[in-house]
Amino acid sequence: MRSLTANEETILLAVLRLKQDAHGLAVKRQIRDVTGRDYLYSTLYTTIEQLVRKGYLDRRSGDPSPRRGGKRRIFFTLTPAGRQALRSSFDRQKAVWKGITEDVLG
Amino acid sequence: MRRRFPRHIAGRILEWIYRFSLREGFSGDVEEEYAFLRGTQGRLRAERWIWGQTLRGLPSLARLSIIWSLVMLRNYSKIALRNLVKNRVYAVINLIGLTLGIASCTLIFLYVRHETTFDAFHDRADRIYRAHITEDPADRDAFSYVHAPYHLAEALRSSFPEVESTVRLETGRDILRVGDRSFTQRFHLADEPFFQVFNFPLIRGTADGALKALDSVVLTETTAEKLFGDTDPMGSRLTLKLGGDFYDFTVTGIAQDPPTRSSIRFELLIPFENVTKYRARRQLDHWLNIANETYALLSRPLSGEAIDQRLAGVVRNHYPERFADIITLHLQPIRDIHLNPDVPPGFEPVSSPLYSRILAGIGFLILIIACVNFMSLSLGGSATRAREVGVRKVLGAARSQLVLQFLGETVLLSLAAMGSGLLAARFLLPRFNGMTLRQLTLSLDPPALAFLAALTIGTGLLAGAYPALFLSRFQPARAVHQGQRTSGPNRLIRTLVIIQFALSIGFIICTFAMRDQFHFLIEKELGFDRDQVVVVENHAPRADSARIVERLRTDLASNPEVISVSGASSTFARDWTQMGFRDEDGNFRQFFQLTVDHDYLDTLGISLRAGRFFAREFGSDSSESVVVNRAFLRAFQWDSGIGRRIPGPDFPPHSIIGVVEDFHFQNLRNRVEPLAMVLDPALLMEGISDIGTSHPPHNLGFIHVRMNLEAIGGTIERLEAAWKRVAPLQPFRFSFLDEDVQRQYGEIKHWGSIIGSSSVFIVLIACLGLFGLAAMTAVRRTREIGVRKVLGASTEGIVWLLAREFGKPVLAANLLAWPVAFFAMRRWLEDFPYRTGPGAERFLLAALLALAVAMATVAWQSFRAARADPVRTIRHE
Fold this sequence. Notes:
heterodimer, A: 106 residues, alpha+beta, two-stranded antiparallel sheet, 5 helices, 58% helix, globular, B: 877 residues, 7-stranded mixed sheet, 6-stranded mixed β-barrel, 28 helices, 22 strands
């Protein structure tokens, strides 16, 4: 199983945190709040498309809204495969960062 | 209901370029955040944000879009290919049809391009002109010619400053000797600037030096090889007969063979001033004596008013006063020469633009039929796949997907057809060259290729569009339920088949008509006996020529195969001398003239109608006797001619001693004209005011030998041996009279071939169309056929039923074709004073042929449909 890229990991984690409310705009805001990084919508969505294609995310359509010019919201949820990918990533990170404290980093 | 991002252009751009599946979410989120920003932080901030999103996101989105499109393209191609292979038969038929169309179109394009770009290869083509003169005498119709007086070139140069240089060109044919071999060689004379004005590259020698010395000669590659073989000809000597004497020349240059697309085609070139060796000074100085083509290179292209004025000035200042009023000078651009029908031909034959137009018309027609066929077959093919389409729609295929798939198939097929079409054109090129008497090569420059590609892809798209849109509109349930039932496309295809067969039948009729006319012409009784006569060229000058004939006659007298020998100044299939004079009432009269010897009538088997022919016992015949043909009598409205004289006041005393039956001495495209025969043309020369001739009437330039050619072999060799004894300095050039005559109609034969080949193409394509129609019909009526069989119909009955259905359009096509073909052929035959009959049998034969071919085409389909098991077919329901 190929490891996640940094973007993919960030987005998957954001979707995880947002639970039911993970649509594009919310994910973007979430990431900005947590990391300070302001994604472009184009980058965000292309990565999400890839994640959907790989089967890590599921999509679900919401209701149309006049605020969005009549377009629907699309909500994303983690699939079991997605969770598995995150878990592997977490485990690897843990192993790699093990024992590194503030002092060691300097 | 999706609504575009109407208010914001940046938003629209983003939305447009994001082509992936999450588009709705993407677009909506952008719009939502924009609205939010605008509400909370004001318009300016929002604008900056959205433009930032657009401009920064564009590169990566664009790149991904392209990659994705390529992947889609590859997928669609694979699917298209797979589909085509599944429906192999249909694909192959369609491919063949369009291939034929493209191949014929390509060939014809090459021909038309060749004809219309004549003489364009000269660098200075837009500044090179040829002099062309119109004479408008008071008492006759105006006529024009492209040969000019000797001094015109100089007059042009001195008259207006725009003339940079002039080149005069003349041509002749006479004996050439190299070492101990002799040939008859066509030669050209050209002024020194020849190679600097025209683009005939020199392989050896220089453009400014090659024609400097009076005795220099330039050969083309082919001529050099012919005369000198592999040895280097530069500096070698050869001897050419000009007028009555032989002159030596030294080779100073070798030129590339002139291209076929040239109005100037030379083999051997000597400086123009050599013309004084065979033309008298007096002749050259006369302004109405014309023999050379005069070309002028101008410093810039001139036309219209400017040039007319200057040319009028030339006439005023140089022509003798009495001619100045009737002469008009023109300059014809060199590129105009080949295809302008209003200007008579010079030394090289010109082509009528009519030929190019006809061929272009045929090519266009074939291409249109092929493309339309392609479309209708695609439609038919898709109709039989209605079920497949229905199933796929049920399974959720998007309409756009289906449309793209059909388009992909047809475009792929049409591209393949383009490739195979070009290959086929390459393969057919030799035969085409033979038919059109050209040497074309398959060289397509980028614009032409681009055009062809555009045409092909356009056909593919059009062909795919209609069935794609039409089919994908279906409700799936209906499509799965029954076969294609709509009559719309069916009627369209049926009409197309009728038109195609009508065209086929029309072309077949025309082919038959042209063949018939050709055979009629070559078999028509000509009034002389053309079989078993050998014609030998005699280049001895004036009085010598008669002596040579006499010597040959004596030498061959002991040869039992030789029946008769006679000399004459012209022969069939060549030009004839025409003379004009003013009769006693002042009317201008013209007649053709032939110088003969005593044996002419016997040798050629021409019948005498009244009086007698020239006879040796009557010594005064050469100075006082004339023999005419019946057309001569008719022209002067005489009942009998014996004893009369030609009514011109300047003729010396003479009388008409005999009248011969009319014989066709010219091409059968002309009626028989008045002809006067004499032993010595001096008799007539005094009385005439005008003469037009290619073969000097004083020379017996052609010797006709009637021999028994069917005897033991070697007759020609013995004749050649006799010739060598009699005229050792002349080469032996001969031809067979019957072949000469037949060659005149070669043009009809060639056009007959072209029409015939086109017929084959069109018939093939029409059959393909019919085949498609048959396939569609078979599918459509499977259920009906099954029911009929259950009710007791036999296989033969079914086949007969289907045959009738397909026979009807073919027969209907006849109704369309017959009148058009009839009128077309009648119009063509009108140009011939002697022609075949209307030929009802041609129409019937064509109709039968078409019907037979049609039946053969649908036979297989019909049998297959008729034999199908009714149990299976009815279960279709």
